[in-house]
Design goal:
This protein is α+β, with helices and mostly antiparallel strands. Helix content is about 30%, strand content about 30%. The protein has three domains: about 120 residues, Winged helix-like DNA-binding domain superfamily/Winged helix DNA-binding domain (Arc Repressor Mutant, subunit A), CATH 1.10.10.10; about 90 residues; about 30 residues, no CATH class.
């Protein structure tokens, strides 16, 4: 039996919700198809994240949940909960943590440069003080062009350095999704050289040129841990059995696969 892919990293899901919820609350309703295309994620993952957001609220939780509803026609409607209308009181560490998460979310697909999240972060920066901290994800130069190519399904010619083999190769790739994780930027792309979908670190792309060729578009969600090791397929795999108290490790480290065994979680890790 083929093991199912590992869970999507929690920090990735939170960053996406930081983008999706303000956008949705400003419009009050949108279709799953529209949101899936805008935020470059599958409808299945989108529904999972929205359902999770609908369970969030403040004690005692009566009338304090995020009011989300998805009808049979795939239309998402949202109401603004009362706690969103109250002043938010944060400590300085909490404020900087929220600002850092929001800055990371601003670089994700579908974000409007002057949208609700950007405006909220600008206000938060003023409160925290401009001299308090400088936050910069340090996007590699190719990031913006690859993200634009992903939106138009354009083929890009790249020169790529592979750390595992210490080789420099020329490839034709079709970017499908661009995302950041653990301080690094990645692009999911259809790779003409291998004939497979691959995940590349953008800072290892030394040259790139967007061509005039485009192909059929398709929605691709950022990969689970399995895809981090595309370049290192010759490495061995370690299988770990995690007790309930150790399940946090599945959210912290890239995994090849995961499966439940009673109360335990069995994971394969490179």
């Amino acid at each position: 039996m083929k093991a199912r892919p590992g869970p999507r990293p929690l920090n990735d899901r939170i960053r996406r919700l930081l983008v999706i919820l303000p956008w949705l609350m400003e419009r009050r309703r949108a279709t799953l198809t529209e949101m899936s295309e805008r935020f470059q994620m599958s409808e299945k993952d989108l529904i999972t994240d929205l359902e999770q957001a609908a369970t969030c609220g403040l004690p005692p939780f009566i009338d304090e949940f995020v009011d989300l509803f998805i009808d049979d026609d795939g239309v998402v409607e949202v109401g603004v909960p009362r706690f969103f209308t109250r002043p938010l009181r944060l400590t300085a560490p909490e404020g900087f943590a929220l600002l850092a998460a929001g800055k990371a979310a601003l670089a994700m697909p579908g974000v409007e440069a002057d949208g609700p999240l950007a405006r909220a972060l600008a206000k938060l920066e003023v409160v925290l003080g401009e001299d308090g901290m400088v936050l910069d994800l340090g996007q590699p130069p190719a990031t913006a062009d690859l993200a634009a190519a992903a939106e138009t399904a354009s083929v890009v010619k790249i020169v790529y350095w592979s750390a595992s083999s210490d080789e420099i190769t020329e490839r034709l790739v079709t970017p499908r999704a661009v995302f950041a994780d653990r301080g690094r930027w990645y692009v999911v792309a259809d790779d003409d050289r291998s004939g497979e979908e691959r995940t590349f670190r953008i800072d290892r792309i030394t040259e790139w040129q967007v061509t005039a060729t485009s192909v059929a578009a398709r929605v691709v969600s950022p990969p689970t841990g399995q895809a981090w090791f595309d370049e290192l397929s010759d490495l061995g795999t370690v299988t770990l059995r995690l007790r309930p108290a150790g399940r946090w490790a599945a959210e912290q480290y890239p995994l090849r696969s995961t499966r439940a065994d009673g109360d335990d979680l069995v994971v394969d890790m490179a």
